[in-house]
Each structure stands twice: as structure tokens, then as C-alpha cells.
């Protein structure tokens, strides 16, 4: 028996007829109210592309920008039902720029309708969307070869497109691909058969949607309960609220907190209406446990006999969704349901060609590209492989400054290679080292354009600290590129890795009790923030040497600006690589206005104010 509710989406390239198809389906199943139909007729005369006929695409293309451009931008959801089944349909954008919206619609769908214009055949976006569907775990596909009326209802054209698509989709893991020729604008083979394609003896789209068997029922999977909220209105009630995303839970069942392994039993299952003896996947519930154990938002409750993976490193397929490229080593926020932590891509193994499916070497991912990556998180994550459980195997990456979603990931498996690495306790700690030196450790991070005076001020500062009997060390951008970072160039990815390594070295210097000066352009805020976090905010002082670029170019102590102007140097900060000025530095030195001695004394005063110096 078919599932009661079918979640589906339409996808494909721009102008393949996705919105028209869904609008026509709603019309032919008599699910459009008369006043809505009248309004649609008026809008069709104003915005439509079908002459005097009703433009059914406008029923879903609700945004003014969509109507003016004739494309879908947002994801439009519609609920409808027939005597046989209920449906939730997502009409997703076809334009490459809005691939993130398509991925959003696909993340919860059971079935996808991939539209192809019979005149154009498979396009790059058709292939991209198909691979995203496979990555997001959709196993049932309808290949809707649309606009058959514009190719004279030619059977050979239909068969050729179907053959091409099946060849392209081979190996992607789809359970079934049902190909249907149609003319959505006229309604042919949407809800009823047309007389122009007697050679087609398969189902109409509606027939197939009403009867297709979907095996994506989450009830048979192991129980997974992500805690969204700890509900404690008084001292007698402590419940854990959330949605049971898979499996079943019953009163008396044993459970464990997946990350800590602490065990208890379910004492009550509370809902807004009444207590339940048993909850099933999809139920919004509050669990009360028999024991007072440590559970907080983001924890995952599971059966002790069928626990998820818990790891800080894992491999995942990654779909990049932002115009700024993905850079390994850069920290992002990772969100997996209610769980949140900081994560970095430690290694991009390869990029996947959306046309051929072949892997190719890559250092970064651009928008809408797909790759296989290793991810490292700051805190352990409880998860299942995405192929086993879509509800607990996916995550998103969010930019830490703009809060924009930049990537979507599907976890493949944990990485166990670091499981036997543990921190070694040391006999002498940082406090003892600081006592021996007579001052506290600090990392003085000088940032600014090339020629701003960073290294000059840092060198003068170190000399001044030496006269005060301080133990210091200087890390300078050019010097470290002769040894530690000699393998790195000046691309954005290499700059990020350069600063990541320096931040780790600076942290070790601080642990040794030293006052360390770090003179680096360090053009990106994200990496300077990473350095602050790695060193520790109490030991990190960001010093922005704010010198106008005209003055830096006039100084040009190493001749780099002249070479950049001549095209001899690429990715040079201030020319073809950006510099993101600090928004809230600990100290600003106005280059060109402040003398070196004045700058040094200001920094010394700041060190004393922070009690780094006595």
C-alpha cells in the first residue's frame, strides 16, 4: 500500500516547465478555487507567457521578481490531496544561482520530478540536480520529458532523452526512474492522457504519484531523538522536548545520551494533549527520564543497543552554496539539527564533475560545486551515515560572520585515525613558566597591508621588551615562508593555511610563557578570529596598523606594489586579493601619523594594563 503522504519536488533547468506542471496538476485535479482561477487569469494577461491562455506557472511563481523574470527563485510549497493520497510538493528553482533553494526542497522529499525540455535534452543543470538528488538520498525519480508538443510528439526524441538520462544516472543509486512524456501546458499525460502520443502506454503523472511505493519510512530505523529544548518550568518537572526523527520509543525503554554514553530509562512521554505509551517517527514529544542525568540542547538520545557514531572527524559529500569559495582550514559553524559547534574542512579529497561524475583534484569548492571532504569539529558529533538515516546524517555549514548558510553536507562515515591520539600531561605548566620569566605570556598579532609598518613596529617592540628583561620571540610573514610555510603560495586557500599554522605555533609559544609578536598581513577576519580562539582571548592582542594604501605603495620597501602593478605578482593584497580590515581590534596604530617610538609605548602601556607586564 502506498504511503499516506508523498513529499515530492520538481527540479531541472530554467524554463523546463516545473511551475507550469504543478499548476496544471492542481488545475486538472480540480484543486484550484474559482476565485483563485479568476485571479490567475488576470495575472496571466499581465505577466503570462501563454498568450490568451492561463499561465499555470504563475500559480507558484508568487514573487514579483519571479513573475518579471519568468523564473522560480524561492521554493514554493503546495499541499493537495486526491482520493488516493495526500501530497506536499516543492517547486524549486532551476537557475544555477539558486541551487541552494533546490537542495532545501530536496532535503525532505521522497520523490523528485526531473523535468527536461524535449527540444534541449539534458542540460548541465539537469545533471547537477540529479547528482544532488542522489547525494540527498532521494531514490525515486520521475523523468518528465516536457514540451513534447514542440517536437511534434516525436517518440524517437523521447526515447533518446530517456536513454541519455538513464546512462547519466547509472550508479547513482536510484531505486526506480519512471519516464513520462508530457505537454504540461496543455495537460497531456499530467492527469489525463492526450490523443497525440498513442505510442506511450505508461501511466500519467498523477497515476504514478498516487500509486508509487516509497520505502523511505523512518519508523523502521533505530530510534533517534535530538533534544531541542530542556523544559523545566519548576523543580518537579524536567523534560526534554523535540521531535522523534526516526524509529519508536516507548515508556520503559532504555536510552543513552549518545555523546556521553550516560544511560537511563523513559519514564513518561508527554504531548500537548496527553501522555503517550509509545511515540513514533515524526511525533513532537517531551521525554521525562527516570534519572537526573546531564542532557542539554543538541544531545541525541538513542537505544543503548543501536547507538549512532560519535566522532569529531568524518568524511562527507559537501555541496557548496555560496559565492565565496570553500577554503580548507577556515572555521565555520556546523549545525546538525539542534546541535551546533565549530568545524573546519581539513581536506578536500576531490571535486565531482557534475557532467561526468568523475572526481578531479581540487583545493577549493566554488558555488554549486560538489566535493568529498574530511571535516573536523570542535566538539564530538553524534550521527548516522546519511545513506542510513537522512535525519541524523546531514549538516549545514554557516559563515561565522554573516550567518549565511554556505554549505550542505551528507556524512559518509567517521574517521577513526585520530582515536588513539591523546593530550600528554606535562610536569611543568604555563603558570610555572610564566613565574620563572616574571611576566605573563601574550601573542601580539600585527595586521595591516604590505608596507604598513607592521614588522618595523614589531621589531622595535621586541627590542624594547628585551630591555625590560622579557622573554620574547618574533614570527614574521616572510621568515616563516622560508621554512615552516615554504610549500604555500598566495592563493586564498594558501593564505588561510598559512595563518592556521602560525596560530598553532603562536599558541605553543604562549604555552611556553613567551611574549610573541606575529607580523602578518592576515587579510581575512575569519583567520584572525581563528588565531584568537586557538591562542586564547586572554592572551591575544590584535594590533591593526592602519596605514592608507597610497602611503604603503609610496613606501613599497620590497618593491612588491610595483611588481603587482606590472602584473608580475598575482593574488597581491590590495590589488587582486582583498583585505578585510579589523572591525574591533584591540589596538589601532595610525600608520604615517604615529611614530615608531609612540607606537611601541602605546603597546607597552596596553600590556601593563592587561597585567601581562608587571
Description:
The structure is a single chain. Strand 2 (about 75-80) and strand 3 form a beta hairpin. Helix content is about 25%, strand content about 30%. It has four domains: about 5-210, P-loop containing nucleotide triphosphate hydrolases (Rossmann fold), CATH 3.40.50; about 220-300, Elongation Factor Tu (Ef-tu), domain 3 (Beta Barrel); about 310-415, Translation factors (Elongation Factor Tu (Ef-tu), domain 3, Beta Barrel), CATH 2.40.30.10; about 430-610, P-loop containing nucleotide triphosphate hydrolases (Rossmann fold, 3-Layer(aba) Sandwich). It is an alpha/beta fold. Strands 7, 8, 9, 11, 12, 13, 15 and 16 form an eight-stranded antiparallel β-sheet that branches. Strands 2-3-1-4-5-6 form a six-stranded mixed β-sheet, sandwiched between helices. Helix 9 (about 455-465) crosses helix 15 (about 595-610) and helix 11 packs parallel to helix 12 (about 525-535).
Keywords:
alpha/beta, 15 helices, 6-stranded mixed β-sheet, 8-stranded antiparallel β-sheet, 28 strands, 4 domains, Rossmann fold, 614 residues, Elongation Factor Tu (Ef-tu), domain 3, 29% strand, flat
Distance between the termini: 79 Å
Care to count the β-strands?
28
The radius of gyration computed from the alpha-carbon positions, rounded to a whole number of angstroms, is: 30 Å
Largest sheet features: 8 strands, antiparallel
CATH fold title of the largest domain? Rossmann fold
**Percent helix:** 25-40%
Mean pLDDT: 85
The proportion of strand residues reads 25-35%
What is the level 1 CATH name of the largest domain? Alpha Beta
**Number of self-contained structural domains:** 4
Poorly predicted runs of 5 or more residues: 60-74
CATH superfamily of the largest domain: P-loop containing nucleotide triphosphate hydrolases
How would you classify the helix and strand content by structural class?
A: alpha/beta
Second CATH tier, the architecture of the largest domain:
3-Layer(aba) Sandwich
Number of helical segments with 4 or more residues: 15
Q: Which descriptor suits the 3D outline? A: flat
Amino acid at each position: 500500500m502506498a504511503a499516506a503522504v508523498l513529499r515530492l519536488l520538481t527540479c531541472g533547468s530554467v524554463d523546463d516547465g516545473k511551475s507550469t506542471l504543478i499548476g496544471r496538476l492542481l488545475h486538472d485535479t480540480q484543486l484550484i478555487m474559482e476565485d483563485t482561477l479568476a485571479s490567475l487569469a488576470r495575472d496571466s494577461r499581465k505577466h503570462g507567457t501563454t498568450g490568451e491562455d492561463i499561465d499555470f506557472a504563475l500559480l507558484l511563481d508568487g514573487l514579483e521578481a519571479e513573475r518579471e523574470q519568468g523564473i522560480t527563485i524561492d521554493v514554493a510549497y503546495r499541499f493537495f490531496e486526491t482520493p488516493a493520497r495526500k501530497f506536499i510538493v516543492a517547486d524549486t528553482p532551476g537557475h544555477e544561482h539558486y541551487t541552494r533553494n533546490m537542495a532545501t526542497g530536496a532535503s525532505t522529499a521522497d520523490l523528485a520530478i526531473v523535468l527536461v525540455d524535449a527540444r534541449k535534452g539534458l542540460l548541465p543543470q539537469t545533471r547537477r540536480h540529479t547528482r544532488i538528488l542522489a547525494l540527498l538520498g532521494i531514490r525515486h525519480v520521475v523523468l518528465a520529458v516536457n514540451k513534447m508538443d514542440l517536437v511534434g510528439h516525436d517518440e524517437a526524441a523521447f526515447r533518446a532523452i530517456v536513454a541519455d538520462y538513464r546512462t547519466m544516472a547509472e550508479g547513482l543509486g536510484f531505486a526506480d526512474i519512471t519516464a513520462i512524456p508530457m505537454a504540461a501546458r496543455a495537460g497531456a499525460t499530467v492527469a489525463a492522457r492526450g490523443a497525440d502520443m498513442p505510442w506511450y502506454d505508461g501511466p500519467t503523472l498523477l497515476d504514478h504519484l498516487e500509486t508509487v511505493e516509497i520505502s523511505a519510512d523512518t519508523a523502521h530505523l533505530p530510534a533517534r531523538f535530538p533534544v531541542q529544548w530542556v523544559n523545566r518550568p519548576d523543580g518537579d518537572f524536567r523534560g526534554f522536548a523535540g521531535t522523534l526523527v526516526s524509529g519508536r520509543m516507548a515508556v520503559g525503554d532504555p536510552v543513552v545520551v549518545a555523546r556521553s554514553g550516560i544511560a537511563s530509562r523513559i519514564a513518561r512521554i508527554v504531548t500537548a494533549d496527553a501522555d503517550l505509551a509509545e511515540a513514533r517517527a515524526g511525533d513532537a514529544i517531551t521525554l521525562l527520564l527516570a534519572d537526573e542525568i546531564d542532557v542539554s540542547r543538541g544531545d541525541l538520545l538513542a537505544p543503548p543497543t543501536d547507538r549512532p557514531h560519535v566522532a569529531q572527524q568524518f568524511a562527507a559529500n559537501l555541496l557548496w552554496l555560496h559565492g565565496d569559495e570553500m577554503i580548507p582550514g577556515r572555521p565555520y559553524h556546523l549545525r546538525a539539527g539542534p546541535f551546533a559547534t565549530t568545524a573546519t574542512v581539513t581536506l578536500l579529497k576531490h571535486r565531482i564533475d557534475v557532467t561526468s561524475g568523475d572526481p578531479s583534484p581540487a583545493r577549493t569548492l566554488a558555488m554549486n560545486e560538489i566535493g568529498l571532504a574530511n571535516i573536523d569539529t570542535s566538539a564530538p558529533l553524534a550521527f548516522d551515515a546519511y545513506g542510513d538515516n537522512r535525519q541524523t546524517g546531514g549538516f549545514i555549514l554557516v559563515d561565522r560572520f554573516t550567518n549565511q548558510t554556505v554549505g550542505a553536507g551528507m556524512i559518509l562515515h567517521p574517521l577513526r585515525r585520530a582515536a588513539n591520539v591523546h593530550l600528554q600531561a606535562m610536569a611543568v605548566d604555563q603558570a610555572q613558566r610564566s613565574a620563572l620569566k616574571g611576566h605573563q605570556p601574550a601573542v601580539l598579532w600585527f595586521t595591516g597591508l604590505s608596507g604598513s609598518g607592521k614588522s618595523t613596529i614589531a621589531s622595535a617592540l621586541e627590542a624594547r621588551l628585551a630591555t625590560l628583561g622579557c622573554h620574547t620571540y618574533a614570527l614574521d610573514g616572510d621568515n616563516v615562508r622560508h621554512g615552516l610555510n615554504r610549500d604555500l603560495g598566495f592563493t586564498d586557500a594558501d593564505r588561510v593555511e598559512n595563518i592556521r599554522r602560525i596560530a598553532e605555533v603562536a599558541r605553543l609559544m604562549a604555552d611556553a610563557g613567551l611574549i610573541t609578536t606575529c607580523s602578518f598581513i592576515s587579510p581575512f577576519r575569519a583567520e584572525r578570529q581563528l588565531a584568537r580562539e586557538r591562542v586564547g582571548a586572554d592572551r591575544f592582542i590584535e594590533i591593526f596598523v592602519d596605514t592608507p594604501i597610497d602611503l604603503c605603495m609610496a613606501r613599497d620597501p620590497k618593491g612588491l606594489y610595483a611588481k603587482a602593478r606590472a602584473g608580475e605578482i598575482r593574488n597581491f593584497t590590495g590589488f587582486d586579493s582583498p583585505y578585510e580590515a579589523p572591525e574591533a581590534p584591540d589596538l589601532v596604530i595610525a600608520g604615517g601619523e604615529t611614530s615608531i617610538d609612540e607606537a611601541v609605548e602605546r603597546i607597552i602601556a596596553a600590556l601593563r594594563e592587561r597585567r601581562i607586564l608587571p
